[in-house]
Write a structure and sequence with these properties.
By secondary structure, the protein is an all-alpha fold. Helix content is about 80%, strand content about 0%.
């Protein structure tokens, strides 16, 4: 166990050291977050009305509703894209071939390569929310941080499987997985990120009920804005954990097969 944690830390420290060589990126991302929050705030001022607030969960303001949906999309994107990006960078730098001859297990290699992107996504969420609190009156008095952490962890586990499957596609076909972008596009429309699911036509509401992102976002929004405890969001957490219990082992098996396939055909380092 200690050895595994040490390996994960080494992966994280490597990626952090690389990121620190581009320090201005952190500044520009913070400024980008400010512009994003300001855009949502002024759009909310334009569209907010008593009728709209009544239609939103917990009758919150549209600014709070949309900001939480916006930052959650960033986290979802990180969970799905981190493995593709890490794999691409390792292959471009030649580190992938060296890594595969070590004794590092496949799950540790995948988890370690995604550790820094997930930490960076969490930091970006904090920056977005901090701008909202400091400059635009975003309220966090009702937040239940234990429930927020539980939902983010369950989301990470649930959608990392999709990210690993996407990385498997990249290994085999040397290009990004179009299904990943299709899933993100469908989720941006049907999961309630910027507008309530209730405004969708019936057939899209059915898609929303089948999409695990809907449950993840509903739980995250409730924990951050409504303050329910972990027990109050147990249903969406259960959906996410069941999703991860099926998808994570399957994705690891597929990735291991894709890795063996590329080694056999000699195309592992091809681009």
């Amino acid at each position: 166990m200690i050895g595994t944690l040490r390996e994960l830390w080494l992966f994280f420290r490597r990626d952090l050291s690389i990121a620190r060589t581009y320090r201005t990126v952190f500044l520009f991302e913070a400024i980008e977050a400010l512009f994003g929050v300001a855009m949502l705030f002024y759009v909310a001022r334009f569209v907010d009305s008593p009728q709209l607030q009544h239609a939103l969960p917990q009758s919150e303001s549209y600014f709070a509703f949309s900001l939480v949906g916006f930052v959650f999309l960033d986290y979802l994107y990180a969970a799905i894209d981190a493995f593709d990006r890490s794999l691409q960078e390792a292959r471009d730098t030649g580190a992938l071939e060296h890594l595969l001859v070590t004794q590092t297990s496949l799950p540790v290699m995948l988890a370690g390569s995604a550790a820094y992107p997930f930490a960076a996504a969490t930091l970006r969420i904090a920056v977005y929310i901090a701008w909202g609190v400091v400059l635009f009156g975003f309220q966090l008095r009702g937040a239940n941080w234990a429930a927020v952490a539980a939902v983010l962890l369950a989301t990470l586990l649930a959608f990392s499987g999709l990210g690993i499957l996407s990385a498997s596609y990249l290994l085999l076909f040397k290009r990004g997985n179009p299904a990943k972008w299709f899933f993100l596009g469908v989720s941006s429309v049907t999961s309630g990120m910027l507008f309530p699911v209730s405004v969708l036509p019936d057939w899209l509401q059915l898609v929303a009920r089948l999409n695990p992102v809907t449950y993840a976002l509903s739980a995250f929004r409730g924990a951050l804005l409504g303050g329910p405890g972990i027990l109050a969001v147990w249903q969406p957490l259960l959906v996410l954990l069941l999703f991860s219990a099926v998808l994570l082992p399957l994705s690891l098996v597929v990735f291991a097969w894709a890795l063996r396939r590329t080694k056999t055909t000699g195309t592992l380092m091809h681009r």
